[in-house]
Amino acid sequence: MGKASILIVEDEYIMAMDLQIKMEEMGYDVLKIVSSGEDAIKYAAEIRPDLVLMDIVLQGEMLGTEAAEKINTLEIPVVFLTAYSDDKTLKQAKKSSPYGYIVKPYDNRLLEVTIETALKKYQADQNDMDTVTQDAMDHPHHEKEDKKLEESTIPKSSAKIMIVEDEFILVMDITEKLERMGYEVVASAASGYQAMEEVEKFKPDIVLMDIVLQGDMDGIETAEKIHAMGIPVIFLTAHSDKKTMVDALKTAPYGYIIKPFHKNTLHSNIEMALEKKRSEIQKHKKWGDTISTKQEELKMEKTGVFFISSIFISLAAYGFLVRDMTWLAYFLFVPACYNLFLGALSFKSQENPKEFEIPPMVSILIPAHNEEHTIERCVRSLSQMDYYYQGKRNFEIIVINDGSSDNTGKVLEYLKDDVESLSIITRKPPRSGKGKGYVLNDGVQIAQGDAIAVFDADSRVENDFLKKIIPYLNEDNVVGVQSRVRMYNKDLNLLTAMQEAEFAIFGNVILRARDIMGKNGFLGGNGQITTRKAMKEIEGWDGFAVTEDLNMSIKLMLKGHKIRYCGEAEVWQEAVPEWKPFFRQRVRWATGNLETLFVYLAPIIEAKIPLYKKIDSVQYLVFLLFIAFVMLGYVVAILNLGFMYIITINIPLAMGLLSTAAFFPGAILGIYRDEGRGIIGSFVTAIEYWAYCFYLIPLFFAAFLHMITRKDRRWAKTHHTGEEGTRGPELKE
Fold it and tell me: Residue 305's pLDDT is what?
């Protein structure tokens, strides 16, 4: 038996201590004992045990069955250990799809075998998910076939049971017990070969299997063959020695009942096994469909990138060959007009928010992967926010530590004793490192707030941040708010200063104008607020999306929801100080924009939303690409001017004017609105920003190449150094 780690959830102190002693004697590592459902969720998420041993009646307001449902979403196996086995309790327990159900009083053999069965079954389930993933990638599912398969394999309420037992009297006794419980015994067999014949004939929902049978095929070998057919097996045997258990558990059974047994033990094991099978089928189907859909989306993206690349490369080649780039002038007319329109619109006043009578509780999620340099300052800054209701703190902070290999975990361990509102979720391989959306979805599962806030691990805010931004949610159909993003190390070098200018333009002009136009904003990751209700409606973040925030914004927009912009609430973050990691970050952003464009262009066009929202959404998704072409327009204009005696290109004078109209008014306005720089200082910064934006031309070549060659999507996070900046909010001591 392996040294598995256990979290014990038991409200009776003496029983909990006795249970701990038994567990340790069996070779398990008891990480902690807790007595309430709330603590069970908290510590299961934080310390990530291999298994949770859960009583049902606990201290506090939460039952063990409710806590188990939350823990199940984190994919941690739960085994119930309770004195209750009535139908109502079993019905509640089944909702969490537990890996075992032990009825008190119990003996040590039953306890050990149930735990080992659960651990082995959980391991087999993880392997099965890998198989489902590979099958879905190799053979995309067909919806009709999947539905037919699902209907034929999910056990019905009146389950069909087959008994494999070589003692006739015992078969009759078990049959009588099962029929009284409402099950249908469809067949029995005394040997392994007979069992295989009966299984093929009757297709039972579950098989009760003895280990010692007639003939030369024992119950373990028979169970292995039946398991391969997708039919759950519960061992019902008098043998529980270690060698037999080790061999039997290799078949990943759905239960292991030791003779003599109580009818409540039999009933609870069958019910849990049937529910486990149902949930497995549904989970596998949903995951298989998701993988198949994402594979199709990946093909769609590659096709879209190849198509667009071919068109623009052909146009560029044609233009230089015939020395006529008139097509680019016409192309630039669109962003020039639209950007001038947004700039003019941004002069209007935004609609003032309304205060909540009862402000919603806010759950702050911070995804963290190797953030030892910034996570402490971030958590302390957020924990000092002045957001209370009736004298009580009205927010919580949840840090999701996604497989960090540095000292992030140690820093969080230190912080949890010092920061009252902090909770920690630990993600370990193979669950970690799959995507930021998955990380955030884990946070939502244990979050208690009606509003969900997302901050990066380098964030810093003023104490009144939540007070300013939360009222923007107090409006029908508004489900999200984006704050103003600033750079606390903007004075470090020219690159960091340009990122500050970039976000100033984006917030002070683009998002402000979209808010005025119809609350048509977009969420930008750091400093964003959404409602739990809206998150549930779209089933959380897309773990496969490169830019999960943009993906979510489009989904909310397609549902007809609105997103606002709150410029007075500022979140300060670390600008990337070096070009190599900066370029890598922007390739990811550009990839995410194009990915979302290709996947959602058709749904946007077909959506039942106002036409202006469709146009604005598409324009937003191609904004970076438009700016790249604006800069290309400048390249063409400069070539025509500077090398007119060597290369003459028949280009309209409007080319340079259009690029200027598309770029400078919005840039100067956005920069000018920050900290009253003055018109001359804003113009100088805009010129610097203009030179900086030439990086967009090679960026899109890199992004297109990345999209064509990539095979999967993972969280490519930005590295944070934690260097102190000269700007941003001060931290209280």
Answer: 87
Q: How much is the average pLDDT of 45-61?
A: 96
Helix (H, G, I), strand (E, B) or coil at 435: coil
Spatial CA neighbour of 203 closest among 156, 162, 240: 162
Residue predicted with more confidence, 631 or 366: 366
pLDDT class for 2, splitting at 50, 70, 90?
Answer: low
pLDDT over threshold 50, residue 350 = yes
Q: Quick one: CA dihedral 7, 13, 15, 18, positive or negative?
A: positive
Reported as a single tens digit per residue, the pLDDT across 552-595 is: 999 999 999 999 999 999 999 999 999 999 999 999 999 999 89
DSSP structural state of residue 100: E
Give the span between the Cα atoms of 257 and 252, in whole angstroms: 14
Query: Which tokens sit at 98?
Result: 């537990």
CA angle 617-619-622, nearest 5°?
110
Specify whether the CB–CB gap between 364 and 390 falls below 8 A. Answer: no
Give the closest residue to 720 by CA, choosing from 443, 457, 387: 457
Which of these, 21, 707, 733, 730, lies nearest to 306 by C-alpha position?
Answer: 707
**Cα 570 to Cα 504: distance, rounded to the nearest angstrom:** 11
Calculate ∠ Cα 437-440-444, nearest 5°. 130
- Lowest-confidence pick of 339-353, 450-464, 718-732: 718-732
Helices (H) then strands (E): counts for the chain: 26, 20
- d(CA 519, CA 521) in angstroms, rounded, equals 6
For range 336-349, the mean pLDDT: 92
Q: Give CA separation, 100 vs 199, 323, 336, 443, 590, in Å.
A: 24, 75, 64, 26, 47
